[in-house]
Amino acid sequence: MIDFLNKPLFLAPLAGFSDPPLRSVVKQFGCDVTVSEMISSNALVFENDKTLKMLEKSELETPFIVQIAGSDALVIKKAVEVINKFDGIDGIDLNCGCPVQKVVKQCAGSALLLDLDNLSTILETIRKYSNKKLLSAKIRLGFDEKIPRILAKRVEDAGVDFITVHGRTRSGGYSAKVDYEAILEAKEAVSIPLVANGDISSQNAKFILSATKADGLMIGRGSIGKPWVFHEIKTGDSVDETTKNRIILCHFEEMIKYYGAHGVAIFRKHLHEYSKGLENASSFREEVNHINDCDLMRDKILEFFKI
């Protein structure tokens, strides 16, 4: 389902950002594979409406992968059985890299890098009970110590179809320099496709592919406020202002379609990013922070971005 010969581009699972509206937009501008926001396996088991809504996708999303987090194999099994009920999901990804303390305290996310036996058990559990085509894992280079070869090989042996490696340790958070050489070490340790992740932009994508020998790239924060980055990486061309502004309006309309009137408030954080560096951005952000009416927000977007 994923053509790794053509170096596919993935949208990373971004809490609070990679919802169906954004995923729909990036699919129109060069993104090949989309991944849901990270979903707690514990929350999935309870099957509340808010959590199940996170399994929804836009009509453009194929392949679509759901990312889950957890540390208890039995709970993971039950979560997988919930996911199995939903059509249109092409794969399950296990989060083994989230550095957030509340996730780590539950022995999930990057904490799994400290317990490789449990990491293997969880992946094997997903493989055994999932009815989806794909299984993958997203890891970091290690918790404190960089052990990319050990981790990549362990994940491969657990039966995944591909692996995504974020080029920092857990202790490196999101600010440490990304170690692309360490991603290369992980790549050399396995025979399955590897996707590189960490500080990827249209300016350095070609270098990262070469330096890591990766089979694809996953873009996360580099797409916030710049969902056209996928198009720029694919084509090598910059997106003109007219197209950018059309994308911004398209994103807003997708938000309203998906969230209803509540989408106005949620879209403010995106407008903060879209307006960065533009003239009068500060006053624009202050103004939209107090707008809750859909039509008024649309008018302000049209006016500010000169659409």
From TrEMBL:
The keyword Protease does not apply. Keywords: Flavoprotein, FMN, NADP, Nucleotide-binding, Oxidoreductase, RNA-binding, tRNA processing, tRNA-binding. Its cofactor is FMN. InterPro entries: Aldolase_TIM (IPR013785), DUS-like_FMN-bd (IPR035587), DUS_fam (IPR001269), tRNA-dHydroUridine_Synthase_C (IPR024036), tRNA_hU_synthase_CS (IPR018517). It is an enzyme of class 1 (oxidoreductase). Residues 11-294 form the DUS-like FMN-binding domain. PROSITE patterns: UPF0034 (PS01136). FMN binds at residues 67, 138, 166, 220-221. GO terms for molecular function: flavin adenine dinucleotide binding; tRNA binding; tRNA dihydrouridine synthase activity. Its EC number is 1.3.1.-. The active site is at residue 98. It catalyses: a 5,6-dihydrouridine in tRNA + NAD(+) = a uridine in tRNA + NADH + H(+); a 5,6-dihydrouridine in tRNA + NADP(+) = a uridine in tRNA + NADPH + H(+). It holds the Pfam family Dus. Belongs to the dus family. Catalyzes the synthesis of 5,6-dihydrouridine (D), a modified base found in the D-loop of most tRNAs, via the reduction of the C5-C6 double bond in target uridines. This is tRNA-dihydrouridine synthase. It comes from Campylobacter geochelonis. The lineage of its organism: Bacteria, Pseudomonadati, Campylobacterota, Epsilonproteobacteria, Campylobacterales.
